[in-house]
Write a structure and sequence with these properties.
- By secondary structure, this protein is α/β, with parallel strands linked by helices.
- The chain has a single domain, classed as Alpha/Beta hydrolase fold, catalytic domain (Rossmann fold).
- Helices cover about 40% and strands about 15% of the residues.
- The protein contains nine helices and eight strands.
- The protein has an eight-stranded mixed beta sheet, sandwiched between helices.
- A hairpin with a 2-residue loop joins strand 1 and strand 2.
- Helix 4 packs antiparallel against helix 5.
- The model has no long low-confidence stretch (mean pLDDT about 95).
C-alpha cells in the first residue's frame, strides 16, 4: 500500500500516506498542523519500518468535522489501522496526536506495540490548586490577544500570536521554525473550526494511564506552556513501562525543531522494544 490514499471513516475521510516495510510505526501530528510535520522522519523511518502518517479529521487534506455530529480521533485511527491491515503498531504522537495515541492504547491495547509521546497532554490532567490558578492566569494572558484577533477577523495575526507566545516560542526564523509556521498557516481554518462534537474518553485518560502496559517514551519540550512539564513527568510516573528523555532547546513540535536528535532518540527506543 505504499503511496497516498483516502480512507473512509464514519462521517468523513482521512488522508493517509504509507511507505517502507517491516514492523508498523504510525505517526500522529499535533493540533495546529497536519501530517507534514513528520516530513523529516517519514523517509528516514521507512528505511527500517512500515510507516504510516495521516491528517486527523479537520486538518490537512482530511475532511472537516460536521457541527453537531459526534466523532472520535481514536475511532478514526482504528479505521485507518483496519484499512491498512495493521494488526499492531508503535504509535508516535505529538501533542494532540499523543493524546489520541493514549486514548487509542487504552481502548485498543492489543493493537499497540509501543508509544512515543512528544509534548502530549492526556485528557483529565489536573495540577494542584496553586498550579491550576497559575496556569489559568497564564492562559488568560496569552489567549486574550489571540481571541481579539480572531474576533477582528485577522486570523493571520491570531496564528502568529499563538506561535510566538505558546507553540513556537523558539521562533520561526530557522528552517524548522519556518516549516512550523508554514504548516500552521496552511491550517488556518483550525482557528474557527467547530470541534465541539469530538467525543472524549470517559473516564478521562489521565485516570487510566496505569492501564497502559506497552513500552513508552515520553519526550517533553522545555519551551512549552507551563503545565506541559508536570504533565510529562506524570506520564512517565503513571505509565508502568515508561521512560522520560529530554531533548534540550525544544518547543512544541519537537520533531521539527530538533529532527536529528528526535530521530536518534526515537529510533534507538524502537530498536529496543520492537
Amino acid at each position: 500500500m505504499t503511496g497516498s490514499r483516502f480512507v473512509d471513516v464514519e462521517g468523513g475521510r482521512l488522508y493517509v500516506e504509507e511507505a517502507g516495510s517491516g514492523d508498523a510505526v504510525v505517526f500522529l501530528h499535533p493540533g495546529l498542523w497536519d501530517s507534514r510535520t513528520w516530513d523529516p522522519q517519514f523517509a528516514t523511518f521507512a528505511e527500517r519500518y512500515r510507516v504510516l502518517r495521516l491528517d486527523a479529521r479537520g486538518y490537512g487534506r482530511s475532511s472537516r468535522p460536521e457541527p453537531g455530529v459526534p466523532y472520535s480521533h481514536a475511532r478514526d485511527l482504528l479505521a485507518v489501522f483496519d484499512d491498512a491491515g495493521i494488526e499492531r503498531a508503535a504509535i508516535v504522537g505529538c501533542s494532540m496526536g499523543g493524546a489520541t495515541a493514549i486514548d487509542f492504547t487504552i481502548v485498543h491495547p492489543e493493537r499497540v506495540a509501543a508509544l512515543v509521546l512528544a509534548a502530549a497532554g492526556p485528557s483529565g490532567f489536573e495540577g494542584t490548586p496553586e498550579q491550576e490558578a497559575d496556569w489559568e492566569a497564564w492562559w488568560t494572558e496569552h489567549d486574550a490577544p489571540v481571541d481579539a484577533a480572531v474576533e477582528a477577523g485577522d486570523l493571520e495575526r491570531a496564528q502568529d500570536l499563538r506561535l510566538s507566545t505558546m507553540w513556537a516560542r523558539l521562533g520561526t526564523g530557522d528552517e524548522g521554525g519556518r516549516r512550523i509556521r508554514d504548516i500552521a498557516f496552511d491550517n488556518l481554518h483550525e482557528l474557527t473550526m467547530d470541534e465541539s462534537a469530538q467525543e472524549q474518553l470517559d473516564p478521562p485518560a489521565f485516570e487510566r494511564l496505569g492501564e497502559i502496559s506497552v513500552p513508552t517514551l515520553v519526550l517533553p519540550a522545555d519551551h512549552d506552556p507551563p503545565e506541559m512539564e508536570p504533565i510529562a513527568v506524570a506520564l512517565a510516573e503513571r505509565i508502568p513501562n515508561a521512560r522520560l528523555v529530554r531533548i534540550p532547546e525544544t518547543d512544541h513540535v519537537i520533531n521539527l525543531r530538533r529532527p536529528e536528535e528526535f530521530d536518534r532518540v526515537v529510533l534507538r527506543f524502537l530498536a529496543e522494544v520492537l
